[in-house]
Amino acid sequence: MTTPGTNNTAESNSYVGIQAEQVHDSTVYMVLPDSPPNCKYQVGLRYLENGIPIRSRELIAEAIAHGYDGGEVRFHWVLAVLSKRSHRDLTPEEREGLNQISAELHKYPNDEWKRALEVIFKLLGCLDGAEADVNGTIRELRSLTAQQRDKIARHLDLVLTGKVKESLWVETRQAAQAARDSNNRIGRVWAYFEPLPAYPRVREPAGYSITLGDYTQAVFWSALLTFAVGCLGWLVLEHARLSLIVVYLLALAAGCVGARNGFQWHYKIERMRAKERDYIAPSRSVPAPEKGFANQVDHSFNYYFNKYAPEGVDLNEWLADTAGIRKTLRDEIVEIYRESRIGARKVDWLIRYMVRDVRSRWRNGTLLEHRERYKVETSTKAWCILSCVVLVVAAGNVIVGAFQESAVTAVIAGLAIVLSGRFAVPLWIGIAGERRRIEEDYQEYHQIKKERKAEYERWRKKLDDTRPREDEMESWLNSDKMLILDGALRHYRLTWNDIIAHAFLQTPKRPYKRARAGVGPWRYSKYEIRVFLITREGVREVVADLDFERIEVSSRERDNFRFDAVSSVHVEEGRAAGYVLNLTLMNGPVKRISVTEPETGGLEPSEDSDELFKVNLDASGFAHTLRILEGIAAEGEKWFVRYSVPSSEGKFASVDVRLDAAPVV
């Protein structure tokens, strides 16, 4: 088993240990204390089909206790009692319940569920050495409906052995092979581990930067400018020369034209500079702190800008051309999501969309379209320069003409015009430019928000349509385990007549992604599957690495040891830190097997940590495996002799291991 300290050598956008952690907002397991019995039964049935028999037993038993009973209900309760357990794992109460159902079968209606229950009890009877009944019982099993037959074969996997198991094994193996990649597993299972996307956000445009003081100054200087221009105009009228009046009006017109074109020129230059800072700015030189949100966003941007690089283009050229926009988009994501406790992988969908959008605009040449949009036209420059020239010449002539009427007034008015114009014009250009910027920014803001929301809805729908159901995930995992078991039997050249007992122990394999639905068990993208085969000669152990997403299995460890070679079995730590099973052999190092991972992501307020712990421990196959290994460690070959002897009178031997107990030492 990979230890928690192992380095992660995964590709870009992978992280040491847990790569993704997601709890789906699922109603699969929702049941309230006052829910009607039939509702509890249905939820219990879903628990059973999804590989959580410990909760299924409780809910179906509650439904029965409140009067919801019948052959179908009892059939599924029996399966829940026996699922992922051997016949010797039952508690006295469960053993008594099975015996009571067996004794009262004659009271049930003669339907398919009664026949299915009869077959189950006959199969259990075959374990006590009633060899003459095996063939007939197998025929009766095959006569059941396909759904009932498959359920019995699946949930009684650890119960059946010997000739009964051998008779069913070919069909079990073929069914596992067929189910392993059914329902487009490769094309869908990734969606189970994909986090629910964070709701789209867009960086708000910068606020209005003009203050009341700016307005006050603009009004003051404008009033002074207007007064000075008016005084100068009054002197011109007093002079009463038509040519001077025309020149005065020409100066006013030139001033208006110059102001309008000057504003356009200045505004576009400023906007161009702002956009250039967004698109051409150098990338970050100082990396963000490791394992933080910003650092993970950096990883995602680097990964997707490499992954979605345009085909046929030099990667270095692509990265160089997009360095500025990459930094701008990265800073936006960090700014708008950092304080909301949203995991970085929940915004990966938005990062991917951003990168694809940049690539699309880079391909069609519109990535730097702001350069065209804010390019100052030659006509604007020409009109601005010409107007300024005309204004200066005309204003000079007006002042000279006015000087002849009143030298002092003309000089004061001229100085006032220059001084007030020096302050009023820039102030009003800034005010008008800020208003236009706000208008443009909000138009762009609403357009980007609309596009991101559309992408969010598309991605959310794709996940909902693609994500496998819980029963599909359990079916695929069970199929993988059956084929790993088949590989172990083939490797050791064993038949089921050679097997006294077997056990699975499924544990997470780092680095992995994990997810769960509601209060269901954690499901992992990578598992370590251990198979223990108990034979007359000793224990055969096979360890296989399962890549659940890619359906790839690699056996990396095999071991054989005698019954007396097991020195001790020790479980350390507790549910908060995870369970570690230590198996000590006489002639080898201690085998440390991490059974459950510590809870790192926190729980929802409505979730019970103890309940989740028991569910995950039950799903791992820990209880059955621990019981077998503890028995071997304590008694050696005596355990084998005792275990292989059928219990008397069709009763079921009981060894009670409680999942809510303290760690066993």
Biggest sheet character = 4 strands, antiparallel
What's the total number of strands? 10
What is the rounded distance between the termini? 21 Å
Structure annotation, total helices: 22
Radius of gyration: 39 Å
Poorly predicted spans: 1-18, 647-665
How would you describe this protein?
The chain is of the alpha+beta class. The protein is built from 22 helices and 10 strands. It has helices at residues 37-49, 53-65, 71-82, 92-103, 112-126, 134-143, 146-155, 162-180, 185-192, 212-239, 242-280, 293-307, 315-321, 323-337, 348-363, 370-373, 378-405, 407-466, 470-492, 609-619, 622-635, 637-644, and strands at residues 18-24, 499-508, 512-517, 523-524, 526-535, 538-547, 552-561, 566-572, 580-585, 591-594. The strands form 3 sheets. A 4-stranded antiparallel β-sheet has the order 2-5-6-7, sandwiched between helices. It has a 3-stranded mixed β-sheet with strand order 1-3-4, with no helix packed on it. Strand 9 and strand 10 form a beta hairpin. Helix 21 crosses helix 22 (637-644). Mean pLDDT is 84; it is low at 1-18 and 647-665.
